[in-house]
Specification:
Structural class: mainly alpha
Largest sheet: none
Distance between the termini: 19 Å
Number of helices: 4
Shape: globular
Mean pLDDT: 91
Strand content: under 5%
Radius of gyration: 13 Å
Helix content: 25-40%
Order of helices and strands: HHHH
Length: 100
């Protein structure tokens, strides 16, 4: 299976919601399924990348920003969320360093 990458560092193709609940952020242009649970019509992280004209957050000097902490899975603890954010940030830094 092709690896589908979101701008926030999530590997969409490895997500349990892919492809049944969600086709992935790139295909949906940020209009992902979980927006039903927040007050937004497009993922704020995706919109930020569009507004800044960057491919992913690793290309932004503000990463990680407050959007990463505000929009999180409510089913995980703060510790799990922080660990996941750090994993995604490391992945995005690696993508940026490799030119991906």
């Amino acid at each position: 299976m092709e690896r589908i990458l979101s701008c926030c560092g999530i590997v969409c193709s490895e997500c349990p919601s892919y492809p049944t609940e969600c086709a992935g952020c790139p295909a949906l242009k940020g209009r992902v399924f979980w927006l039903d649970y927040v007050d937004a019509d497009i993922c704020p992280v995706y919109k930020c990348c569009l507004d800044k004209a960057v491919e992913h957050c690793g290309k932004c000097g503000e990463m990680p920003c407050e959007r990463w902490t505000r929009y999180k899975d409510p089913n995980v603890s703060e510790e799990e969320g922080a660990a996941e954010r750090e994993k995604r940030a490391a992945f995005l830094r690696q993508r940026e360093e490799s030119g991906e």
